[in-house]
Predict the structure.
Amino acid sequence: MRISYSSFETYNNCPLKYKFQEIDKIRTPKSKEAVFGSVIHGTMKFIHTPGILSPTMEQTMEHFSNSWNPAVFDSEQEERSAFAQGVRIIQDYYKRNRPEDFNIVNLESRFAIEIGEEGGKHIVSGIIDRIDRTDDGFEIIDYKTGKKMPTQKDIDENVQLTVYLQAFLSQYPEEAKNLSKLKVSLYFLKHGVKLSAFRTEEQLKANEKMFLETIKLIEEGKFEPNISPLCDWCGYQKNCPMWKHKFKEERKIDTEEINSSIQEYIDLKSAMTITKERLGKLQEDIMQYMEQEEVERVFSENGIVSKTLRKTYKYDDAKIKELLEPIGKWKDVLKLDPTALKNIFPVLPGAVQREIEKAKVIDKESASLNVRKK
Ligand code: SF4
């Protein structure tokens, strides 16, 4: 199959969004963030396009202004603030990056690289924002216009940069022996910060493997929705089973009966929470009273409350091992603790995390209803 880096990223953020976009081909209007990003990227290209004379700051600002599209914003105020932010980004960038200081090799270069083996070959495509010649090698740069700035660790493991380096190497294969001189960078324009890293041969191989695994999931038709903060920017909410009910007024699908069932369910669930809290408090009062009166049961007109002692035990691991190992039973009592694994997961290296994710299989599946009150 043919997959672009951006659709690979879409699949990893939400497989269902990938399906809507790439398989069902449902078109959605470009978000204002995407339009803003395109204008900034276009201006970056304008600044660095090689010519006899580099553009001045004034010419750059004029280019930015002419490419601006006010129509995508919801209000005049929003549009004005986005424009001011764009001006600040460009001016700040220009001051720190005089165009004549760089040796540009390529801008917005398209690539299509082959991955996989005979019988299972695939094409990964994309666009590299910028490739520079540095004093001793090359630098591959991608501009980011989002607010979020990742950590250095994220940059060290960033999949997009690794793919871009693979694409670069497919165009300049002789550079494969100079990996330590091929820098990959993400430039966070809103912060005026560029974070860089280098890649090893092992990382390049592992990256290809990861792509092949994602392609396999797509080919197997695995398109589960993944609710995340990114849903706020997703144009498919009206198609998505996790969100489309929110638009019921528009779709006119609900009966009064189901609406009142949903309402009652939410109310009962929150009454249960209140009851649970109240029961905890009453239990505390009664226990205290029993201790004070030295009684194990208390009586009322409508029943008896008894105290029962529940004990949980823990064992001396070393002692149990000593007893069970000689008779070949130690392995029978050892088992993975999923909660402990979940706790250590965030501190594991990215490659180990990915291997663990792959080793995960569904044990049991059941549906339940969760309530989040407005
Ligand atoms: S709304 Fe969220 S869960 Fe639904 S398709 Fe979009 S990103 Fe996925």
